[in-house]
Amino acid sequence: MKSVELSPLTRKLSAFVALSKDELAVLDRLHQRRRTFVAGRDMVHQGQSAHAAYILSAGWVCSYKLQANGTRQIVDFQVPGDFLGLRSVLLRTSDHSFEPIVEIEAAEVLASDLLNAFAQTPRLATAILWAASRDEAMVVEHLVGIGRRDAEARMAHFLLELGSRLALVGIGSREGFDCPLTQYHLADTLGLSAVHVNRVLRQLREQGLVTFRDDRVTFHDFGALVELAEFDPAYLDQTGPLLK
Amino acid sequence: MKSVELSPLTRKLSAFVALSKDELAVLDRLHQRRRTFVAGRDMVHQGQSAHAAYILSAGWVCSYKLQANGTRQIVDFQVPGDFLGLRSVLLRTSDHSFEPIVEIEAAEVLASDLLNAFAQTPRLATAILWAASRDEAMVVEHLVGIGRRDAEARMAHFLLELGSRLALVGIGSREGFDCPLTQYHLADTLGLSAVHVNRVLRQLREQGLVTFRDDRVTFHDFGALVELAEFDPAYLDQTGPLLK
DNA sequence: CGTTAGTTTGATGGTCCTCAAGCACTGTGG
DNA sequence: CCACAGTGCTTGAGGACCATCAAACTAACG
Fold first, then answer.
1. CATH code for A2-132?
2. Are residues B230 and A68, on separate chains, in Cβ contact within 8 Å?
3. CA A195 → C1' D30, Å?
């Protein structure tokens, strides 16, 4: 923790691009409008337009789509340092909703501010594009999981990915992590019923692999879980700055 | 067709940003290294690093991931005007493979050229980010389909989306479109078995909704199909330039 | 102490997979 | 010209995986 005053996003981007003083200043200015949101009440709902984007600094959010038949599909989770609604701003109309899982803290970023920042600092734009690319890689991996993994591997993969993301920002490890999600969240994420989620969790627990209980995920046999899920964290890794 | 000499990508981006002469020149320079690829042989395979990105000008490509158990999941298709491998370049290692469905023509874009272009023309960078966002919106919709739609609705939705994309570049309509995909492609796209794909296609055909036969998709009852799939093309639309 | 949100378990059945086999079409070589 | 292989499409039978329905249980909370 060399630089405790940097925002999580700044830390994340700094791993990709060595940002200049000017660029850091522009990024800092994007963080000015700080807001908090209570758990459970959508920050943005699908179809809404002319809304802002946010940079999440504390708490968990999920982005999801609702269908006419009442089911919902959670597409992704955002944890501190993640952008939220970036695509919606560029497309001008949100194609999903964002729901805080717990009370969160976020910086509001107006579309105009974002576009100005991009115009002033192209390298910052590239860095943010990189972050967006990494997020998309996670969505792709999620897609593969739902399409081609059975429920057990899907669950294992999801928990491992989440653990890795949190470990990167220092709030998780190979031992486990604190997790505010319910089994309904898992069901809507993995394309399963809540009942089946419960059964799968029991199987994984009884095999001594992982426990999901009391707002905490505990890995009992990390290696075996990685093998079961065929988990390859390459798509999450950043091996060093691309731009100098 | 005012400007037949523009590349499909240029046409697509021009709908988003009114590009200056300089920006058009930079974009044009990205198209210099033209190449062709034969059908069926991967252009890029997963795990490969230090490869280029491509701008597709003719033909169809699919991007997919292979799993250790031998199954594959097609993530997306690229049609003329689409970028290909953009994310892989930024992350420096490809997380999927790209396979030409038919013989294709594409412009090779080196990572350095792309980054230089971004540095020279920030607005072009924003435009390309917009295109990437639209692609991601399609992946998200794909995810929702696999997670929360049954096989029939999933198939209907996929065919409608494909039709809409092709209609935007002038090679498809509400009547239908030419389609080089096999039922195996559909299976790997939709997370189904090829056998079940065949049965679903038969159902849709027997209900008088759509026919998939002889390299051609024919819509018989567009409205009913839209209703069955709960298809809402909002995520594909572009209602006008965001930047002036 | 009733209510609500979340978890757990059982029973039953449907969607979709797997295995298996046959058919149509195309291109290739004897 | 025809045998044959290869690719893709089609259909049937049986079964696995997971959804749905139902109900009991726990913990938190006013």
1. 2.60.120.10
2. yes
3. 29
